């Protein structure tokens, strides 16, 4: 047996995590005490900030065998009072993994066994998350046989923690496959974005009566958002996203007290996915946005003492993104960002123009930030900007960040097109 969790305090053992059903209602218990997940998917965000805002858990997408790094992460979580849903990398068919290759499947199972044995006794471990969205662009149902064997193996090696897998949306056919081929899973992770309001109906239609956690949810996805006439997705501004987070949490996630065990909002940090701001609750430079304030409110019932600025949809020459703004090369344009700060903090504005992303990835696969376009810009410091449109025809996106000088910011962007006439 591989030694594990040597960084934990002397005398501390693994948390005893159970899912129980009482009076028709599922509950998650940690060392015998109810634990409702108030969590976030952790990227490059700060654990301490998550705990300070009222979170009690975070999830990861991979674990690996870098023992010192992972144990340091778990130790830090323990100090912050956070429990960790440990993500385990499981091969995706869309990335080339062949579930008819018995040797590859066996090698994967052994690798996962090693990871579980390394960390299973750390007191910050909450559960194991075997794979992420394995149902995206897949055709071989043998993947669920492999997931079932992974769950069986983990239960044998680690009887103290539940095992789940996560799915991108779901229907009756998928749930039937999980029940028949991976029936030893303790719960499932459900990942929905703009369509999260359909969750109650999906649960009924698929006949999933077991426990679940919403393991990803957040803003309306780029694949389900309105489009310009040239098919550029239109992103909500930071304030609209915060409003939607609060509404979706209260109306859907918190409302299910029968099967739902909590959620992990996406994403505690930042990442490029269609834009640098679409999914992260933080700016790439580290500032918190109104979405962080909204999560603090739904987790604790209290707004922060100093809130992020608010912003309204960006306008370009008096038009909004839904107007599919098209410009001629080199013309002078005017943009307007209307923002306010409820605390009276002085606001500063940062404007950039990027090429529109041409990435065609799915499932959160890695993307590069599109190149910035150097343009002549004259701003008035009060949310007004005059700039010269790019000379090269093509698709672009205008971004604005509004900073309050206290570590908080709001943002908005607007796609536009340059056409020679």
From TrEMBL:
Domain Glycoside hydrolase family 2 catalytic intervals: 77-174
GO terms for MF: hydrolase activity
Alphabetized Pfam families for the sequence: Glyco_hydro_2_C (PF02836)
This protein's record includes keyword Ligase: no
Signal peptide: none
Assigned keywords, A-Z: Hydrolase
Keyword Hydrolase: yes
InterPro entries linked to this entry: GH, Glyco_hydro_2_cat, Ig-like_fold
Protein name: Glycoside hydrolase family 2 TIM barrel-domain containing protein
């Amino acid at each position: 047996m591989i030694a594990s969790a040597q960084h934990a305090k002397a005398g501390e053992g693994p948390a005893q995590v159970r899912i129980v059903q009482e009076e028709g209602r599922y509950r998650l218990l940690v060392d015998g005490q109810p634990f409702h997940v108030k969590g976030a998917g952790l990227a490059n965000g700060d654990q301490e900030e998550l705990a300070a805002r009222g979170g009690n858990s975070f999830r990861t997408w991979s674990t690996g065998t870098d023992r010192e790094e992972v144990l340091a992460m778990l130790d830090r979580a323990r100090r912050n009072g956070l429990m960790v849903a440990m993500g385990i990398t499981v091969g995706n068919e869309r990335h080339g993994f062949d579930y008819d290759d018995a040797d590859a499947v066996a090698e994967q199972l052994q690798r996962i066994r090693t990871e579980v044995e390394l960390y299973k006794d750390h007191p910050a471990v909450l559960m194991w998350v075997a794979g992420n969205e394995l149902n995206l662009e897949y055709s071989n149902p043998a993947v669920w046989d492999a997931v079932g064997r992974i769950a069986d193996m983990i239960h044998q090696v680690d009887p103290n923690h539940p095992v789940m897998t996560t799915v991108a949306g779901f229907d009756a056919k998928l749930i039937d496959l999980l029940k028949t081929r991976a029936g030893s899973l303790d719960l499932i992770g459900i990942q929905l974005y703009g369509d999260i309001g359909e969750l109650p109906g999906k649960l009924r239609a698929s006949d999933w009566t077991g426990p679940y956690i919403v393991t990803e949810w957040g803003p309306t996805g780029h694949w389900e958002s309105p489009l310009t006439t040239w098919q550029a997705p239109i992103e909500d501004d930071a304030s609209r996203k915060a409003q939607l987070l609060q509404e979706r949490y209260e109306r859907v996630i918190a409302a299910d007290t029968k099967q739902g065990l909590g959620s992990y909002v996406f994403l505690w940090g930042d990442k490029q996915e269609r834009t640098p701001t679409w999914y992260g609750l933080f700016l790439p430079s580290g500032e918190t946005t109104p979405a962080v304030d909204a999560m603090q409110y739904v987790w604790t019932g209290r707004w922060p003492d100093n809130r992020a600025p608010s912003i309204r949809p960006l306008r370009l020459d008096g038009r909004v993104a839904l107007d599919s703004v098209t410009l001629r090369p080199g013309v002078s344009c005017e943009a307007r960002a209307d923002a306010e700060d409820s605390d009276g903090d002085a606001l500063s504005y940062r404007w950039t123009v990027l090429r529109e992303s041409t990435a065609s990835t799915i499932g959160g696969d890695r993307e590069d930030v599109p190149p910035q376009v150097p343009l002549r810009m004259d701003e008035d410091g009060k949310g007004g900007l005059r700039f010269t449109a790019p000379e090269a025809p093509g698709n672009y996106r205008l971004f604005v960040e509004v900073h309050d000088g206290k570590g908080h910011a709001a943002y908005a962007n607007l796609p536009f097109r340059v056409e020679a006439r």
